[in-house]
Amino acid sequence: MFDLIIIGTGPAGLTASIYATCFKLSHVVIGKVVGGQMILAPDILNYPGFEQISGRELTDRMVNQTKKRGGEILLESVKLVGKTDNGFRVVTETEKIYEAKTLILATGVERRKLNIPGENEYIGKGIEYCASCGKFDYAEKTAAVIGGANAAAQTAVQVGHSASKVYVVYRGTELRCDPIWLEQIKASQHIEVVYGAQVKEIKGDGQKVTGLQIEIKNPQTQAVESKELMVDKVFIEIGGVPGTALLIPLGVTMDEGGFISVDEKLSTNISGIYVAGDIIGHKYSIEQITSAVGSGARAASSVFSYLKQQKAPTLWGTSQIKRG
Ligand SMILES: Cc1cc2nc3c(=O)[nH]c(=O)nc-3n(C[C@H](O)[C@H](O)[C@H](O)COP(=O)(O)OP(=O)(O)OC[C@H]3O[C@@H](n4cnc5c(N)ncnc54)[C@H](O)[C@@H]3O)c2cc1C
């Protein structure tokens, strides 16, 4: 029986382990992919202390630090989480069973993909998932942002500050973003919204993105026009699916998007279950590595306080009985 099981080996889970060791909590970290999404980041420019670092190198550094501190990392997929009398039971795909008094879930968000030709090929070669992760400078570039909600609108405005042209490619007839973003998009000389558009292919020259093949449907005539937009950058902002399915059978409260509802200690409605990283949703996370490591540290600290509190009434009760 461990004090804690951390599920997820991305930056949130690894940080939670580093802090758990500082708090002397016996624990194990279980994850499918070491580094999580971070390992996919070709060039990280916004992680303090490193002007520029690849996701792979940052992952190696976090893993080494976790292990050096005494954290144990198991590369396994968790298929089931259940309750026991004293805490929780975790079952992996290979039928290994682990038990702990508490859990931290740090299973991240799987970004929705378009699933179209060229998408896998050009990730990191012009396809971006995060405008603020890049060089913040798109001067002389033509970009396309795919999506129509807040994340897409915000990205268009941000990129539009420096890019010579930004297309927002959206299949709907009206952007679904907050008015503040809509106003800025309308006011911008550089941003053009292409409504009723489906992206069919991301084109490239083998090295980098060169264009987008789209189909635009005329809402009146229903006629479909095929068009190629020449772009150097493509931002895919069509949301993500949080890895929270494991907690559904336990009755953990989630919002309509599947993100877990937490309090300021990152505790869920089920006593002893905490969450960290991207799965918390936008109220407490900005889906960035800095935010993930911050919440990983917070969740481990909350587990430490929780276990201390759990112990305190027992000791007090025992001493009362002895005295009596
Ligand atoms: C291409 C790309 C570039 C990016 N660039 C930057 C950048 O430059 N700067 C920045 O700050 N952020 C960047 N991000 C975002 C950043 O990587 C994420 O915000 C961060 O990794 C979230 O950390 P996390 O620990 O919450 O989740 P994740 O990193 O998603 O890790 C989740 C972990 O949970 C594991 N897991 C999921 N389900 C299970 C299960 N059932 N059993 C076991 N394990 C499971 C996964 O294997 C993984 O280890 C980028 C993301 C991408 C995709």
TrEMBL record:
Membrane-spanning ranges: none
Signal sequence, start to end: none
Keywords, sorted A to Z: Flavoprotein, Oxidoreductase
GO terms, molecular function: oxidoreductase activity
Segments forming domain FAD/NAD(P)-binding: 2-296
Protein name in UniProt: FAD/NAD(P)-binding domain-containing protein
Lineage: Bacteria, Candidatus Roizmaniibacteriota
